[in-house]
Amino acid sequence: MEIVRCSANSHLLSTALSTVAKTTVARHGAALLHMDAFRADFEASAITMDEVREIADNDPTPMSLRQMRTFADGSKKLHVLSAKFVHKELQSRYARAIMELSALPVGLSHTTSVRHAINFYRYELQSINRMKSPTNAAEDAVFTERIRSAKERGSNLVPLICYGLQELKATDLGQSALQLQSVQEDITDRLDKFFLGRIGIRMIIGHHGSV
């Protein structure tokens, strides 16, 4: 997350965040529209943080490209097996993302933008968690379409997180904290880990949706 790492002093950080804000305001608005589209359904039966923590305790499965290609022979039976794996795997990875965003320091996790990102992952986790694991081609088709939609909805998460940094900088605490090298490095390391996990989620969905 170079907007933090490259900014060892407050002036450079301010410039970097201003640049980010200018390029993300429009997409930030679009992301919030996505949130409004599912908020009522989500709030009615939101998955609890205790449930999230329990699911996050399950380690994500390390995967190689070779392993992913084993599902790519076009067989419906293999695709259903892939769906079973993805159904379980995404829950663990979504839960990890929620915990990582919730643990962001110096109030970043409490900014409006980051809270929207957290609720996005909670919604997607809840959606899959409340859905039974696919057992046939018809159920696989429904599941695959659902996670494809989730991937599309998640397209705006990067600028959303960046906008959260801008929100943090606008507070007295954030402005002071972001001048500290240790805080910048801590945020950078945490966001690097989060974005790496996000790439994994999108790769899994993209691969399953394309085979």
UniProtKB/TrEMBL annotation:
Subcellular location: Mitochondrion matrix
Superkingdom of origin organism: Eukaryota
GO terms of molecular function: ATP binding; pyruvate dehydrogenase (acetyl-transferring) kinase activity
Signal sequence region: none
EC number: 2.7.11.-
GO biological process: regulation of glucose metabolic process
InterPro entries on file: AK/P_DHK_N_sf (IPR036784), BCDHK/PDK_N (IPR018955), BCKD/PDK (IPR039028)
Alphabetical keyword list: ATP-binding, Kinase, Mitochondrion, Nucleotide-binding, Pyruvate, Transferase
Reaction catalyzed: L-seryl-[pyruvate dehydrogenase E1 alpha subunit] + ATP = O-phospho-L-seryl-[pyruvate dehydrogenase E1 alpha subunit] + ADP + H(+)
The protein's enzyme class: transferase
Gene Ontology CC annotation, any one: mitochondrial matrix
Location of the Branched-chain alpha-ketoacid dehydrogenase kinase/Pyruvate dehydrogenase kinase N-terminal domain: 62-208
Cross-referenced Pfam families: BCDHK_Adom3 (PF10436)
PANTHER family for the chain: [PYRUVATE DEHYDROGENASE (ACETYL-TRANSFERRING)] KINASE, MITOCHONDRIAL, PYRUVATE DEHYDROGENASE KINASE
Recorded family membership: Belongs to the PDK/BCKDK protein kinase family.
This protein's name: Protein-serine/threonine kinase
Organism from which the protein derives: Phytophthora megakarya
